[in-house]
């Protein structure tokens, strides 16, 4: 697998494949790859002949008190996993390449970033939209695959790609979970064994809420019970448990087609997110 480190090299490699009539899928990541990331590569191969992944720990999407410095990094290990999954090119630019001196542009999607995670992570989704627009503009791939685990991010990227005519089709891929139900996340590495065990309350609370809502129970009481269950399991802070429209992310007081239950909560020092379709 070749590794390129500049936008020009990425553009040239993808364009060369496309000139040969091949379709190209792009999978942006921050590395510390797990089976959830590799499933995005597999999904990419369903839509394209070649898959390009990127690894870039994007400083612009971390708040000042967040984990940028300790975010796990293992390019060699990640590259081996990508080869095994069928990826043919890795784009791994430096921070200086992505944001050279004088860099002054931001991409901001209106509305969606103010909800849910955006309320506790101000500026986070501006950083995401900025880096993803740069990545998509450089790759010019036919499709790009993002995980439904970051449902709000996926909604924002869909909006942005449509609004800005980026020309890459955005594809969502289902959440990959450990056998016990915890959604895979690079940040799960931060959890102690005890925290990892208690964190199972998150997928369980969502599954219980999903089942309860399907029986027609009231939304407010169901969400409150889920929040209480998270606190009882030892989550230090519950940022939200909400039923939302999957596209607009607006809060719902009754399930509708496309509704999702979304949650974010902090276990120890680790903020975890999860979501389920109703
Ligand atoms: P990250 O490296 O955490 O920025 O994630 C890169 C991509 O992988 C994003 O599109 C995420 O939504 C996706 N992803 C992360 N974890 C999972 C998971 N457990 N299942 C599916 N996709 C995931």
Radius of gyration of CA atoms, rounded to a whole number: 19 Å
User: What is the mean predicted local confidence, pLDDT?
Assistant: 98
The string of secondary-structure elements, in order, is: EHEHEHEHHHEHEHHHEEE
How many individual helices?
10
Instruction: State the major sheet.
Output: 6 strands, parallel
Assign an overall shape: globular
Active site: 37 (proton donor)
EC number: 6.3.2.1
Main location: cytoplasm
Protein name: Pantothenate synthetase
What do you see in this structure?
- The chain is α/β, with parallel strands linked by helices.
- The chain folds into two domains: 2-173, Rossmann fold; 186-277, 2-Layer Sandwich (Pantoate--beta-alanine Ligase, Chain: A,domain 2).
- The protein has helices at residues 7-19, 35-47, 75-85, 95-98, 117-120, 124-139, 151-163, 193-198, 201-214, 219-233; strands spanning 2-4, 24-29, 50-55, 89-91, 143-147, 169-173, 237-245, 259-267, 270-277.
- The strands form two sheets. Strands 1-4-3-2-5-6 form a six-stranded parallel sheet, with helices on both faces.
- Helix 7 links the parallel strand 5 and strand 6.
- Helix 9 runs antiparallel to helix 10.
- The longest helix is centred in the middle third of the chain and has 16 residues, at 124-139.
- The model has no long low-confidence stretch (mean pLDDT 98).
- It binds adenosine monophosphate (AMP).
- Adenosine monophosphate binds at residues 29-30, 36-37, 39-40, 146-147, 149-150, 173, 175-176, 183-186.
């Amino acid at each position: 697998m070749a590794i390129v480190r500049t936008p020009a090299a990425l553009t040239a490699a993808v364009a060369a494949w496309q000139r040969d009539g091949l379709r190209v899928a792009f999978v942006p990541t921050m590395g510390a790859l797990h089976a959830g990331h590799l499933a995005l590569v597999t999904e990419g191969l369903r839509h394209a002949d070649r898959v390009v992944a990127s690894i870039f720990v994007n400083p612009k999407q971390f708040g000042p008190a967040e984990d940028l410095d300790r975010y796990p990094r293992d390019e060699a290990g990640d590259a081996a996993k990508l080869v095994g999954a069928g990826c043919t090119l890795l784009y791994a630019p430096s921070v200086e390449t992505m944001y050279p001196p004088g860099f002054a542009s931001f991409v901001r999607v209106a509305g969606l970033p103010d909800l849910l995670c955006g309320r506790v992570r101000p500026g986070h989704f501006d950083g995401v939209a900025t880096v993803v627009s740069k990545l998509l503009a450089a790759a010019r791939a036919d499709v790009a695959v993002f995980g439904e685990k970051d449902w709000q991010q996926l909604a924002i990227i869909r909006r942005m790609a449509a609004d800005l005519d980026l020309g890459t089709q955005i594809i969502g891929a289902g959440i990959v979970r450990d056998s016990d139900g915890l959604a895979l996340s690079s940040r799960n590495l931060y959890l102690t064994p005890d925290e990892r065990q208690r964190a199972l309350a998150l997928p369980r609370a969502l599954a219980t809420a999903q089942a309860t809502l399907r029986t027609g129970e009231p939304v407010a009481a169901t969400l409150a019970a889920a929040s209480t269950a998270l606190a009882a399991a030892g989550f230090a802070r519950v940022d939200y448990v909400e039923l939302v429209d999957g596209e607009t992310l607006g809060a719902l007081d009754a399930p509708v087609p496309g509704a999702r239950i979304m949650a974010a909560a902090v276990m120890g020092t680790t903020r975890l997110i999860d979501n389920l379709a109703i």
